[in-house]
Amino acid sequence: MLFSSLQAGALTLPNRMLMAPLTRTRADAGHMPNALMAEYYAQRASAGLVITECTMVAPGTSAFNAEPGIYSQEQIEAWKQVTAAVHAKGGRIFMQIWHAGRAAHPAMNDGHENVSSSAISIDGEVHTPQGKLPNALPRELRLDEIPALVAAYAQGARNAIAAGFDGVEVHGANGYLIDQFLRDGANKRTDAYGGSLENRARFLFEVLDAVTAAIGADRVGLRLSPLNSYNSMIDSDPVALISFLAERLNSYKLAYLHVMRSDFFQAQKGDVMSPARAHYKGLLVGNMGYGLEESQQALAAGQLDAVAFGTGFLANPDLPARFKAGAALNAPDASTFYTPGAKGYTDYPTL
Ligand code: PHB
Fold first, then answer.
1. Catalytic residue flag (residue 153)
2. Is 271 contained in some domain?
3. CATH of residue 166
4. Closest Cα to atom 10 of ligand 1
5. What are the tens digits of pLDDT across the range 208-263?
6. For residues 79 and 33, is the Cβ–Cβ distance under 8 A?
7. Taking CB atoms and a 6 Å cutoff, what residues make up the pocket around ligand 1?
8. What is the pLDDT of residues 169-190, one digit of tens each?
């Protein structure tokens, strides 16, 4: 079933193997995409859908220093080489649109203050161009600032379409701004954006309203990670959260809902995929640790409609061909995940 086609909103995918978004920190200064990134994504064009690394919708929101942006005309122009290269190989590509919120350290953003749903910092330290620094305490967003943030996601989506992308994936996962509203360990607000599930989800649904109005719901996906503790995230009831969101998402008719089933650190455990499937009527994509056999089983059982592979595609540009042939896989080299240049990026061999 992995190799059967699938209608995902406006797109017909030739297979059900998505390339998961992966931060690779190869952008040029000024958060500019480049020719090396075009080569990397084009190498992986046999994915049913390529999803880019998280991409900044606004300046001053960098969390990794060398991630790309989609807020300037120069960036739009530079992304065109990426989308053209993927399309020339017969592929399809969504951009993951992203605001880091409290994870945007001022030392990475010319002193630009970081903001979040609440004034609560990520634990521990972060790598910055000035060395390792403690994570920065964010300022709690005022109500009057929220419309501009919502508008930034919509503009990012319009810019992505202008750059030739087939659609966007809204990044609602992994402890970044939207997730900082969703989960009650990060969101302690007492206004209309905090407290109940309805209130914590308000920012996400405002973003989805704006993004789908801008480019059409059939070109919009959403990624969620109710269990991931990365970026000091925790929620008192991840199953209630995913159930509520999955149910409410039905009315949006998105291209897909993309759910990370586990925690990067295995600290928070549970089953969020069954409630996602039970409540969500649209196309459900699972991610994290699925291999060939488990993917086929999950698809055959109707638990998922597609599977996203992260490190699988990172290390195997021709992952669908390898799965089809039952061939061995290249092992990902974690030491080059975030280093500059082609090494560990565009030099993984095909079959
Ligand atoms: C990471 O670089 O570790 C990273 C980036 C974005 C995510 C998750 C992890 O959504």
1. no
2. yes
3. 3.20.20.70
4. 174
5. 999 999 999 999 999 999 999 999 999 999 999 999 999 999 999 999 999 999 99
6. yes
7. 23, 54, 64, 173-174
8. 999 999 999 999 999 999 999 9
